[in-house]
Amino acid sequence: MSAARSAVAPGRHEIEFDHHSPEFRDHCPEVIAELHASGCPLGYSKQHGGYWAIYGYSAVYDAVQNWELFSSAHSQETPKGVPPTASPDPLIPIDVDGPLVQDFRRVVLGWMSPTGAKGREPRIREIVTELIDNFIETGHADLCQDLFTPLPARLILEILGWDVDRWPEWIEWFHAIVHDRTEFPEKAEAAIVNIHANVMKEIEARRGHPSNDLFSEILQARINGKPFTDAELIGYANLLLVGGMDTSAGLMGNVALYLDQDLELRQRLIDDPSLMPRATEEFLRHDSPAYGLYRTVTRDEVFHGQQLRKGDRAILMFPAAGLDPSRFDRPTEVNIDRTSNRHMAFGLGPHRCLGSHDARLIFEVSVGEVLRRLPDYRVSGEVLRFKDAGDVYGLCSLPVTFTPGPRSTAAAPR
Amino acid sequence: MKVWVDPTKCRGHALCVGNAPEAFEFIDLEDRAVVRAGAESTSEPEVFLSAARECPERAIIVELEDGPGGSPS
Fold first, then answer.
1. Beta strands A313-316; A51-54: pairing state
2. Which positions 281-310 of A are in contact with B (Cβ < 8 Å)?
3. Nearest Cβ partner for B56 among A115, A344, A357
4. What is this structure's pTM?
């Protein structure tokens, strides 16, 4: 046994837990609170062939810094995920280990940096304005379907230089991969085939005809002197798309729903929009949707008192770490005045979310504009969550009504 | 007071740069933050202590004159 946090491994801490279950979807905060109340920062569930759920703040922190014990690698021989992902090829670089991660990230650092994201703020604002204009005169909308879902989807397609009007198709495919993969694997597999074919089309269109979009830049990039293979290009594009399309929409929906219950905080944010950056960090801690980040254990080792075995699968529950009562006072309460807020909503370590700078801007602009232009919105119908919330805990439908307002720009000609 | 961002720990969250742009700057193509030249003498210690408290990677090290302070865990 190697050096470990605990000298002895007691009996395995087993938990009744399934992050793909309806119970997790419908009672996520309570389920997480119960895990923390067990006093053990990780637990073993027998669902899906058995896996570790890692949810305690320090355990998640330690696991993510130790990639040699908790590998991110995914291959057909050693598939990653709980249950294993339907995609045969790795997403890049989230399914990669070691120095190669930074080599792959370097290709898009200029685009995805704080400066790159800031340069897109005017465009983000334009898209938000246009999407809100589409419904502001009617007095009702589905905030998820009419704003939070299309906004990041359109943005990432624009950045890549792909056909923005096809966002509904891409959304359908990625939602199938993320939300249907456990219950309807055949839907996820069909989506993978469609995505594969369409990414290949974009590759072919640029070979010999590079443009000044991000995807052309990726096509021309070299990793250790070599261009990307087609499989790597597909894995890379897939990650940019899924990262852009599902998680930020999930956060915005969760928060818009929360602000239907906490009208006092809503009023505070309306009265003083300068509070938005603080509020954004607290919402990231409290409402982060990004649960499904997986690792595979590489060797037998005792970790936080639990005996791990080589080949064990684990889910690193970053949002659960933000709800750990040993780190955050009254973690289930939203309190934008917290003096310290070291959440892990974007992950930590070598795989820190590359889209985090865009995500913060998208969130602040979009929720800020909702509060400014439809300040009295109220949920007016059935709120729907994706059936499987295990990977991304988000809403698919949030119907609201509000006092109709004027468009900001002239209606587009039809 | 001595302040630095540990390049082996910084993962480019950029919270320090967002909260105190006068004290930190970001190197886009290296995906990491550094302390601005001379900022130790122009910014208050609390600016750095606060940045160290908020850094999710615990990458910001602050050494006050009376011994190491730094990134509280």
1. parallel
2. 281
3. A344
4. 0.94
The answer to the question of residue A304 being in a domain is: yes
Two tokens, residue A154 = 């359109």
Q: How many CB atoms lie within 10 A of CB B59?
A: 22
Domain containing residue A177: CATH number: 1.10.630.10
Q: Taking CB atoms and an 8 Å cut-off, how many pairs form between chains A and B? A: 47
Determine, for residues B28 and A340 on separate chains, whether the beta-carbon distance falls below 8 Å. Answer: no
Sequence length of chain A is 414
Instruction: Sort out which chain A residues have CB atoms less than 8 A from B34's CB and list them.
Output: none
Structural domain harbouring A278:
22-401
Within a domain: B36: yes
The C-alpha atoms of residue A346 and residue B11 are separated, in whole angstroms, by 11
Calculate the dihedral angle through the C-alpha atoms of A16, A17, A23, A24, rounding to the nearest 10 degrees. 150
Query: If residue A395 lies in a helix (H) or strand (E), which one and from where to where?
Result: strand A395-397
pLDDT per residue as tens, chain B (73 positions):
999 999 999 999 999 999 999 999 999 999 999 999 999 999 999 999 999 999 999 999 999 876 555 555 4
Q: Which residues form the domain of B38?
A: 2-68
Cis amide prior to A83 (ω within 30 degrees): yes
CATH classification of the domain holding B12: 3.30.70.20
Q: Is residue A2, in this structure, part of any structural domain at all?
A: no
Give dist(CA A173, CA A189) in Å, integer: 10
Examine residue A75 and state whether it is found in any structural domain, yes or no.
yes
Q: With contacts defined as CB-CB under 8 Å, which chain B residues touch A288?
A: none
The 10s digit of each residue's pLDDT in A95-118 is 999 999 999 999 999 999 999 999
CB A303 within 8 A of CB A58: no
- Asked if A342 has any chain B CB less than 8 Å from its own CB, the reply is yes
Q: How many domains does chain A have?
A: 1
Task: Write the single-letter amino acid at A189.
Answer: E
Neighbours of A95 (CB within 10 A): 23
In a domain, B48, yes or no: yes
Chain A positions in Cβ-Cβ contact with residue B13 (cut-off 8 Å):
346, 352, 356
Partnered with residue A392 across adjacent β-strands are: A290
Residue B73 falls inside a structural domain:
no
Q: Alpha carbon of B10 to those of A101, A343, B33: distances in Å?
A: 15, 15, 7
State which H helix or E strand residue B71 sits in: none
Query: Residue A340 falls within a domain, yes or no?
Result: yes
**CB contact (8 A) between residue A106 and residue B57:** no
Contacts of A355 in chain B (CB under 8 A): none
Residue B25 lies in a domain: yes
Number of domains in chain B: 1
